[in-house]
Records
---
Amino acid sequence: MATLTKLASIPVESVKGLSGRRGAALRKAGIETVSDLLHHVPRRYIDRSRVEPIGSLGVGEEITVIVRVASISTRRPRRGLTITEARVSDGTGSLKVVWFNQAFRERQLTVGAEVALSGKIERFRGSPQMSSPDVDVLSSDSEALTTGRIVPIHGAVGDAGVGHMRRAVHNALTRSRPIPDPVPPEIVKRNGLIDRDTAFGEIHFPEDPAQTGPARQRLVFDELFRLEIALAVNKRRREAEERGISHTFAGPLTDRFVAGLPYSLTGAQARVLDEISADLALDRPMHRLLQGEVGSGKTVVAVLTLLAGIQGGHQGAAMAPTEVLAGQHFLGISDLLAQAGLGPPPGSPMGMDSLFDDPHHVRVALLTGSQVATNFTAGAKRGEVLGWIASGDIDLVVGTHALIQEGVHFRQLAVAVVDEQHRFGALQRVALKEKATDVDPDVLIMTATPIPRTLSMTLYGDLDVSQIDELPPGRMAIDTRWVSRSGEAAAWDEVRAQVAQGHQAFVVCPLVEDSEKLEVASATGEFERLSEVFGDLRLGLIHGQLSAADKAAVMGAFRAGDIDVLVATTVIEVGIDVPNATVIVVEDADRFGLSQLHQLRGRVGRGAAGGVCILIGDPTTPEGERRLEAMTATGDGFALADIDLELRGQGTVFGSRQSGKADLRLANIVKDFETLVRARDEAFTLVASDPHLDRYPELREEVGAMMGDEVDWLFVS
Ligand code: ADP
Ligand code: MG
């Protein structure tokens, strides 16, 4: 008898058959402990009672046979072709099996091995034959464990084949059972779950295929329940421990800013601002995620949030994921402030016009790895600006994540906005905390890619969520078209037509993976080619290897209307806001991710004139095709985010924030969504009534042990 907590501390190498090289391979695959091994559940089961005897097989059927290998050999009739042939039998008959260019089968299938083959029966020269069937090696000898009715197929890891893994799991299970259940019995009961020990037994070695469903259900619930408890405890603890500043949202800056806007706020913007101002009023810091479709008007909400802190005499910070975007936020924010009469007069020297002299002036600085600027004086030096930030003379700093993390000292940072755009990953929040001196700043995280509900319950599960679910009035849907390379002329015609009406265009160049240099070369080449295609139009080029000043100059010219067609790499992907740009052409669009495409499309249709997005692509994979189809079918970011998650799988999504232990082994947050919702409810309710899980110490220990390193981020973010 051993608890999961205990099993999570026993190295996998101590299981019989897994010492040495095999253990090392398992460790590399993330199976480090006995608990990990017990979570390595079979990828499928073969039901012997439903296996067909060779003697009664009909042609054309998809079937599974269980057979022994009588002989196997490979020949190489010509270069580039190998044919592996095996003869197999099951006592009722024998069968020829062939594989093409799968010579490894000869190593995989030794004579005498018992294997399950799944595929179609064909007739070849009068005899039944199977070609290229799927193979599961049940056992390389006559091992006793394979004689049960249901044969579990545990995924092979390195040298540890299916049979070997099955035996190792069996050994581990026998020594661990019974596995006690630390989940409160009423939760088990309420959710119709079977007990934990039975679940482990039946997921690995069921006596009936019907047992595997409830067994898996139980283990999935446990996995999600642990994750949600960690999130709930973290949120709770943060709320109890952190000290923040209570801000009054209504005030001279926010009032004046709203009055100065050339439009009125949308209902959604107003509602979200209510949610934010309620958070700001509390004396504990805000941790809020602001979700809003591309173009939904998050910037204004962010500025108002910052102003609420600034008008109380504190400082704000706005962080963007790229230099281009930081530069753009700086310009955008400075413009909005100036329009509202909140910008300091240009050239106003420091100290003559401090916040105390005129409460209606907001001093803004841009600070990135290579750029420094302010909204009140030209040519300020980095050192000076750093000094003004430290003395509190600058009210708002706009920069990249990297910069905020190093070397910048605030007098009193009270509100921070983190623009994550589509990057899932909130690690920066940690570093930000340390910038604040004696209080914890209020933090608003903005994301333009709608996060599927599944992720806001897991990855972002410790944050409060606000959503701008309405676009500003007058927006027209973006007309999205997909053309193949051979039809690209249609795209250039559209660009010419839009430019003729006084509008502007983006052309996004093919993605070059892993090499910014090659990407720049390709963008430069494309710029030259398009210069010929477009003849007298004014073209500009922007890419990641331009200096920050050159990038800013190109963007400035585009914004001013001096460039008709901006040829770009994905540096324009996020946040660029030039309402007069009405058409975007994306080349080799099938190679971009779905959220990236949606972001790119969001660069147009920001003004009253609508927008056109043309995707040029000839997909070579089903996923590529599916992405382009999805883009033309819907403009709904939430629908796209769900499709994206489905196509990419949760692993890659979690990858950016989670790694290792807390990666979900059994649960799939899309397919197990209902279980996720129930586990979250139960976990948050439990933690609300018993914040330290004092009544359930075993459960507390298990969450700690099973979440491993992840508990660190859970407890710092
Ligand atoms: P995003 O959410 O993508 O960051 P932005 O904040 O850049 O969106 O806003 C997109 C565009 O919509 C900007 O040009 C902005 O001026 C405009 N906008 C924002 N709010 C409103 C509103 N309430 N009414 C009309 N236009 C608005
Ligand atoms: Mg934005």
---
Amino acid sequence: MYEKIQETASWLKARMTTSPKTAIILGTGLGQLASEITDAYEFPYQDIPNFPVSTVEGHAGKLIFGKLGGYDIMAMDGRFHYYEGYSMKEVTFPERVMYELGINTLFVSNASGGMNPNFKIGDLMVIDDHINFFPEHPLHGKNFPTGPRFPDMHEAYDKKLRDLADEVAKEEGIRLVHGVYVGVQGPTFETPAEYRMYRTLGGDAVGMSTVPEVIVARHCGIRVFGISVITDLGGFDVPVKVSHEEVQKAANAAEPKMTEIMRELIKRSF
Ligand code: HPA
């Protein structure tokens, strides 16, 4: 696997004309940000050696390099979900490659089901912490030399960036909530009992991505900021009926707010 990562990184380096230190995973709610990247050049996943290919509806599947707010960045347009059948090593392959390319800060977005009773559909939740409920660990197996065998997971989500997000939101008059993201394998949405269980265990929102990528990024010493759009509600006293269409609709509606926060935050993070 390590040779494959090196091979992919070398292939990209040979073609890159910029030196990004910041990467963005354009998850649900952030697609619009892709169109704001200037001086862009891109590589479809299928053209990149060893890269998995994204299959899920609504995800294009390419790496975009260019500038955002005047700074070099790279963006993943389309990510790999465990429920699609990828192994955890495949899901987190791009973060391993990012590290080899010199990335030191990662911004990630996703959609999730809110369980905190104070949350409303369309809210943006800064991920303060996570609970890993995936059945396979991305660091399972031989340790990679990028980090320790037993990596610390305190402040997996950078405190300074979380505070900065609050500052930006306040200035822009955007309601921002904070919470713990529970990462689950999917692809089923939660049963009412499962939503209640995750809430009881300390979760504020539940979703099917992000946790593996963040774990690997942290193992590489990359600082991380994560934001989640609450697209549906579950938990106590909430009638539960969730569909992919509803999730997409709520995410699209929240997209301008999400884009605004991320754009500003990325600018100020340099
Ligand atoms: N559960 C899991 N994943 C999700 C949800 C949810 O309620 N909403 C959006 N992604």
